[in-house]
């Protein structure tokens, strides 16, 4: 890890974030817990995730420029999200990070950064 670089840059910038999203969503679509929450046409979701993660990890504010403030919890409230969903989401993300060959300690750091938001989306117990 290079603390003088943003996570976005450490992940490879736009290409790295795109690769992460492209490795992540096939896993989501195959996950029995997560797949029912997502539309059959996953492309628009992937593009929003790319835009959000770019911004979240210190790259360009693509999501905010296109959609305004992320307000991610509010945007996810229409879905029933439990700890099981958060765990499954984080598991898919961990596998995607491995797929694109993100080395330690960056891999663990990225997952730790995503754990807070994943848990914040939980709205049903």
Automatic annotation (TrEMBL):
Q: Name one GO molecular function term.
A: oxygen binding
One Pfam family, please name it: Bac_globin
SUPFAM superfamilies assigned to the protein according to its UniProt record, in alphabetical order: Globin-like
Superkingdom as given in the UniProt entry: Bacteria
Keywords per UniProt: Heme, Iron, Metal-binding, Transport
Gene3D superfamilies recorded: Globins
Keyword match Transport = yes
Q: Which family is annotated? A: Belongs to the truncated hemoglobin family. Group II subfamily.
**Protein name as annotated:** Globin
């Amino acid at each position: 890890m290079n603390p003088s670089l943003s996570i976005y840059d450490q992940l490879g910038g736009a290409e790295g974030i795109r690769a992460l999203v492209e490795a992540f969503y096939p896993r989501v679509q195959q996950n029995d817990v997560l797949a029912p929450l997502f539309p059959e046409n996953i492309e628009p979701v992937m593009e929003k995730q790319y835009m959000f993660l770019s911004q979240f990890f210190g790259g360009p504010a693509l999501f905010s420029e296109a959609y305004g403030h992320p307000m991610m919890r509010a945007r996810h409230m229409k879905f029933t999200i439990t700890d099981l969903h958060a765990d499954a989401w984080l598991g898919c993300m961990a596998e995607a990070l491995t797929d694109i060959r993100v080395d330690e300690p960056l891999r663990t750091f990225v997952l730790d950064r995503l754990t807070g938001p994943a848990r914040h989306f939980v709205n049903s117990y």
